[in-house]
């Protein structure tokens, strides 16, 4: 677990180690089958896989890159030591073509397992069944890593999470846990998922009211809570930008007063959360058919 936090070279060596990833996946599958999702070894295994999925898209060997990607994006490879947890999301503002991956292998080996639907379902199972905060956060964080890039892989993983594996109910539950880091990672994952236009209506229907519910009444004091609030606003921005229906859903969930209050915070006019809320308000106003409802 410590070694998997050692930066790009450490991750590369561990991904290439014959049988290592397969063994970690095998252990977690056994723990879930034995109804023991809370043991420390499972937490360690998930944290290692979480770290090995960090920047996976831009660190894949060329052989995978050629077979998987229709085109590679130029992404800065400036690396920060990731630890087991930490900021994972790439702030991608532009929309990218939703290109499917080639057909999945039925028996993935090694690094192929890291984005395979089998492991995605394992993460979702741990999110639902484990009561250990670190295991929940690492599972959410691994999915966040896998959906943070800009090529076909992140969008394919997002579709698996939302549509094939029905993962939104489990992620939604994590929005309401008391542990701030788990909540923050769940919101960051939803922000990544919400960039995929084909999934936005599914996400809005399932979790938009919950996102509004966990918004604070004003800009929060702590850094983690402030970052979470900003992420919620940007997720809501993604969900409502092109959909008047979803904007109305936000309105009916009583989101507007909260967003206005966050955007007008006097104590720190340039905070992340205030700025994100202002961007969301500006976007909501573009739905001219809702102006009368807004004014009311």
UniProtKB/TrEMBL annotation:
Species of provenance:
Tyrannus savana (Fork-tailed flycatcher)
Indicate what this protein is called per its UniProt record.
PKP2 protein
Q: What is its main location?
A: other
Which SMART domains does the entry mention?
A: ARM (SM00185)
Subcellular localization, per the record? Cell junction
Which family does the UniProt entry place this protein in? Belongs to the beta-catenin family.
* Compositionally biased residues, Basic and acidic residues: 95-107
InterPro entries to which the protein is assigned, alphabetical: ARM-like, ARM-type_fold, Armadillo, Plakophilin/d_Catenin
Where does it sit, as one GO cellular component term? plasma membrane
Q: Which GO terms describe its biological process?
A: cell-cell adhesion; desmosome organization; heart development; intermediate filament bundle assembly; protein localization to plasma membrane
Q: What is the lineage of its organism?
A: Eukaryota, Metazoa, Chordata, Craniata, Vertebrata
Stretch forming the signal peptide: none
Gene symbol here is: Pkp2
Which keywords are on file for this protein? Cell adhesion, Cell junction, Repeat
Q: Where is this region: Disordered?
A: 80-109
